[in-house]
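Subject: Sanity check before I submit

Could someone independently write out the structure tokens for this chain? I want to compare against mine line by line before I put it in a report. The sequence has 319 residues.
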Amino acid sequence: MKTILLAMAATLGVATTAMADDYPNRPIRVIVPFPAGQASDTIVRLVGDQLGRRLGQPIVVENKPGAGGNLGTEQGARAAADGYTLTIATAALPISKLVYRKLAYDPVKDFDPVTLMTVTPLVLVTRPDLPVNSVKELVELARKTPGKLTFASSGLGTSHQLSSELLKALADVDILHVPYRGSAPAHLDLMSGRVDMMFDNIVPVTPHIQSGKLKALAVTTKERAPAMPGVATMAESGYASFEAVAWFGVLAPAGTPAPIVDKLSREINAVLKMPEVNAKLVSMGANVTGTSPAEFRGFMAAEINKWVPVVQRAKIVID
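---
Independent answer below. Compare away.
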């Protein structure tokens, strides 16, 4: 009996390896659970173009926005575990596990991590005419006018909202949250003066900062961002424990054969190392990472733990 089981295991292993060798033999769909034009969409299209050439099959990007990213992510979780449907994960994924009372999928159990592609700072930006030029001045203004200042976010329970909640907690200030359906409409209202401030990914706000339509006060990483060396960090601004990042990774449905996951991870990481791709990502403000599946799994677990106290203090619950 033991011999039979060993033979079956060996046969299965050979079949799985053969499956990976033959993979892919048709187009690969990549679900981006956010609108076109956002950082996640920009990065996946850049990487996907070169990935498709390496794999010899088209990478078809599908934007499936809705419910703070949960609509598209749920579709990715329910897809066949064959490597032909991948999902882009962002910092919103582990946060969803904490803030949604009813979530139709489990961000941890329903996915196999493939690779963490990039980590990028968030930038604290304000409308250009807000009479502050530093985090210290912003906090002073908030204390003088409690409940009067407003911060925008790309939606309830996003890293943008939680970063603002973290600042509110550390500085002990009262600032009103105004959620939007995505960053683009929030940017429009911020530039027009309808809202006062926002934490957002460095990638989409950089052009607005360079044009003078938004004012940058600080970045949220421990070190200054190479793309914005003149902008202080939150730590330099008096909040040593403040650290928050946007990140973008690739997930496969749980149960996807390990050889396929490993192959995808290797190929995507190879694309990230291509000089033209790497240079473009860095110019956008992204820190290129490229990890093993196991490293990405550990990263997501750490992200969940980091935001637990912030969510609890702010009492963020979404039905």
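---
OP: Matches mine. For the report I'm noting this point. The longest helix spans residues 293-314.
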